[in-house]
Amino acid sequence: ISQLQGKDIRIGVQTGTIDDEFALAAFPNCKVEYMGSAGDLITALNVGRVDCLVFDRGGALNLESYHEEVSHIPDAIGQSKFGIAFDKSDEGYDLMVQMNQLLRELKASGDLDIIKDAWINDNTANQRTKYKQLPDTNGTINLAVDSSIAPYCFVRDNELVGLDIDIVIRFCEKFGYALNIHDMAFDAILPSLKS
User: Fold this and answer.
1) Do 178 and 135 touch, CB atoms closer than 8 A?
2) Residue 173: exposed, middle, or buried by beta-carbon count in 10 A (0-12, 13-18, 19+)?
3) Cis preceding-peptide flag for 151 (omega within 30 of 0)
4) Is 12 within 8 Å of 52 (Cβ atoms)?
5) Counting beta carbons within 10 angstroms of the beta carbon of residue 75, is it exposed (0 to 12), middle (13 to 18) or buried (19 or more)?
6) 41 Cβ partners below 8 Å, 6+ apart?
7) Which residue, 178, 187, 148, 176, is CA-closest to 164?
8) pTM for this prediction
9) Complete DSSP assignment for the chain
10) pLDDT in tens, the chain (195 residues)
């Protein structure tokens, strides 16, 4: 990272993420290039449109494992927290309370770390991927995801899978929901929730 300081570098980030803020804070002279998907970012890097990409650790490790021409710098330039958004309604509030309960339980048991490790290190034995047969005892959850953000969400064997989906599957199992997953561009997720 120190070798990039003070240089006029072009950094690729995914539209709608916080990665542009990290890039500008760490490299004030950089030019940020916004792109819609991880695939667009890799293409831009490979053709020289950008000099480097800013990704979270899990995403960087995943890109590196699937693209031999890509490597990552393990030093962090920022720290972010991830969240799950619900609409601002009574039903959305109730779902948020249930999700927070599940996350507290997963964290207390150590299962959250096992789930994260399973997806970041591709340990399929600890991954939950099957959601099409979940019972709809309490209704159906509609989940919006961007399948270009591995290991959080991606397509494997023609199915949407990933860390985010795994957690939502566990949520649905615990509280009796069926699950519909809607794949869309990252920057369309929040507008779809509002609509």
Assistant:
1) yes
2) middle
3) yes
4) yes
5) exposed
6) 12, 13, 14, 35, 50, 53, 55
7) 148
8) 0.77
9) -GGGTTS--EEEEETTSSHHHHHHHH-TT-EEEEESSHHHHHHHHHTTS-SEE---HHHHHHHHHH-TT-----S-S----------SSHHHHHHHHHHHHHHHHHHHHTHHHHHHHHHHTT-GGG-----TT---TT-EEEEEE-TTBTTTBEEETTEEESHHHHHHHHHHHHHT-EEEEEE--GGGHHHHHH-
10) 888 887 889 999 988 888 999 999 999 999 999 998 888 999 999 999 999 999 887 778 777 877 888 888 888 888 887 788 999 999 999 999 999 999 999 999 999 999 999 998 888 888 989 999 898 999 999 999 988 888 888 888 999 999 999 999 999 999 999 999 999 987 888 888 887
Amino acid present at 185: A
